[in-house]
Specification:
globular; 68% helix; mainly alpha
Length: 256
């Protein structure tokens, strides 16, 4: 083996290892961001929650919060589209494309948490402590549904780890397959359903929380439209048949 051949192989292996470390770092950041998002929505164990922080004028809070949520929505949707991916992977290795997407989405959420302006006016409140506790439990159940749904398909591929591990070992990623295990047999988007439950199940609904829940729910429907358009383009009649047997968000199985 010549020195040039050895250097080429070692350099490739170093690049693959660097990609793995980058993917791991992106995964850790995303996982911590998800944990913080739970505390942010529930108002627990975090320094800045949805109803805490400096109160500013209504107009300033509305503009700032809408801009923050719009920035996340644009980043999250644009970077997920295939035309952007084709352009983006001219500059970013394909093996870390998903990790980069996950990292940028996490950073956009961190910015939202950091700069969020509270709107503390109470829109409605559940006075009964037992009912309030049940509603809070339902909100946590929504987050559990989100996490569980990621593992029902491929959690580590969704967050980019599968890709960097395959790259390190020199394996190619398998061709995408339409997987519909368990919950996916009843609802096509259980991850989105979990977020809707988590955001709306609040015993105390402030104006800020209501704004957050309403805008994110609207974005979820936009996201579903864009995602299903891509899935039909990718899987064709297989996905069209799936849409006839499983509902979009309300979990029940349709008859084909």
């Amino acid at each position: 083996m010549t020195i040039i051949q050895r250097t080429t192989r070692d350099g490739s292996q170093i690049a693959r290892l660097a990609a793995l470390l980058y993917g791991l770092a992106a995964y850790v950041v995303s996982f911590l961001t998800i944990l913080y998002s739970i505390g942010f929505v529930e108002g627990l164990l975090v320094p800045k929650a949805i109803d805490t922080g400096t109160v500013v004028s209504l107009s300033e809070a509305l503009v700032a919060n809408l801009l923050l949520m719009s920035f996340f929505a644009v980043q999250h949707s644009v970077m997920a589209r295939k035309p952007f991916k084709r352009w983006w992977t001219q500059f970013v290795p394909a093996s870390v494309e998903r990790s980069t997407y996950v990292l940028f989405a996490s950073l956009a959420l961190v910015l939202l948490f950091w700069q969020w302006r509270p709107l503390p006016g109470v829109m409605w409140q559940v006075a009964d402590p037992q009912i309030a506790a049940a509603i809070t439990g339902l909100s946590f159940l929504g987050f559990v549904l989100v996490l569980t749904s990621t593992f029902l398909i491929n959690h580590f591929e969704l967050f980019g780890l599968h890709q960097v591990v395959a790259n390190l070992t020199g394996r190619t990623m398998p061709e995408p397959q339409l997987r519909t295990p368990l919950l996916y047999g009843f609802v096509r988007h259980p991850i989105y359903l979990g977020f809707v439950i988590a955001f709306w199940a609040a015993p105390v609904m402030t104006l800020g929380h209501l704004l957050f829940a309403a805008v994110t729910t609207a974005y979820i429907f936009v996201g579903i439209f864009l995602e299903e358009r891509d899935l039909v383009a990718q899987f064709g009649d297989e996905y069209r048949r799936y849409r006839k047997t499983a509902s979009m968000l309300i979990p029940w199985r349709k008859s084909a």
